[in-house]
Design goal:
Elements (H helix, E strand, L loop, with lengths): L3 E5 L5 H13 L2 E4 L19 H7 L19 E7 L7 H8 L7 E7 L8 H8 L5 E2 L3 E2 L6 H10 L5
Amino acid sequence: MSKTLVAYFSASGITAGVAKTVAKVAGADLFEIKPQTPYTKADLNWMDQKSRSSQEMNDRNARPAIADTVSGMEDYDTVLIGFPIWWYTAPRIIETFLESYDFSEKRIAVFATSGGSGLGDTEKDLQAVCKGAAKWLPGRLLPGRVGEAEAAAWLSEIGIVK
């Protein structure tokens, strides 16, 4: 029997709402990727080049620590990973997550929320970090107020739900 996990990072709560909808439609477990040191409003000020998020995104090697781990990751065969788009790609904490587990023999798909940009090279960037994944499924940019029908359409396209 297939077991699916929706793992997500959400700085403002928008991606959290989308992740909950995706998990509900997929019948999946839910895991929040929380930074060990929570982001403050000042940390998230993308217009300040000295803000924490700006510094992390400008450093390709930055790997913010994650507060918790997924219990029983080996039991999941599909992992859907959600995040907001930061600087045209995934936040560095997603790379931390992908480097923290063995994704061999798993299917992975990403979904993202954005204030204006698309996925761009995000999937390619993340695949380079997660070399153990057996199969990457097509990701999707989802609106912040995604409905169950729209989530179900994407999940059906990638073979998660029928």
